[in-house]
Amino acid sequence: MNSAWACAALFTAALCTDLQERVIPNTLTLSAALGGLAFHTLQSGAPGALWSVQGALTGLACLFIPFVLGGVGGGDVKLLVATGTWVGAYALFSIFLYGAMAGGTMALVPYVKHQKERRCGNKPAGPWTRPSATMPYSLAMAAGYAAYLLMGKVPLG
């Protein structure tokens, strides 16, 4: 198993629970983070462990302020931290940027629909039509990871 497959499995499991229950289980993120740390430590010793920890800290740094401001949930932060243990700091930051672009695009759809309905005098219906509605950010992060893979930048490990 390499990092690409491990992250694909991690995002698949996170998406399943986040889309259905709006929760990313701690057991999933903790086991993935420990797995990434163990994998890279066994592969490269102390340098591998340091590389993995740097990736985790980068994930924490990327979503810490949005979490404190209420923009993302704790599960989203832990998912990015766990991903960082598998892909390292550089790859994680790229995945985060691609995910942020995907998330911004996804957030525009309900906002534009809401504005259009307001102009037409229709009352919006459903949770996805309100601008204040939340979306599972794991979807945006998974899109960011997919974009990273499609760009041909498969994480090493």
Structure write-up:
With 157 residues, the chain is mostly helical. It has one domain (1-151). It is 78% helix and 0% strand. The chain has helices spanning 3-21, 26-44, 46-68, 74-120, 137-150. α2 (26-44) packs antiparallel against α3 and α3 (46-68) runs parallel beside α4 (74-120). It is elongated and about 65 Å long. The termini are close together.
How big is the Rg? 17 Å
Structural class: mainly alpha
The average pLDDT is 88
Task: Flag low-confidence runs.
Answer: none
Question: What is the string of helix and strand elements?
Answer: HHHHH
Number of helices: 5
Biggest sheet overview: none
Q: Could you say which overall geometry the principal axes of the C-alpha atoms support?
A: elongated
Distance between the termini: 9 Å
- Quaternary state of this entry equals single chain
Number of domains: 1
Helix content: over 70%
- Strand fraction band? under 5%
Number of separate strands: 0
Name the descriptors.
single chain; elongated; 157 residues; 5 helices; mainly alpha; 78% helix
Summary?
With 157 residues, the chain is mainly alpha-helical. It has helices spanning 3-21, 26-44, 46-68, 74-120, 137-150.
Question: Which SSEs are present, and which pair or pack?
Answer:
Layout: H1 3-21, H2 26-44, H3 46-68, H4 74-120, H5 137-150
Helix pairs in contact: 1-2, 1-4, 1-5, 2-3, 2-4, 3-4, 4-5
Domain Prepilin type IV endopeptidase peptidase: 6-107
Transmembrane segments: 49-69, 89-112, 133-151
Keywords: Membrane, Transmembrane, Transmembrane helix
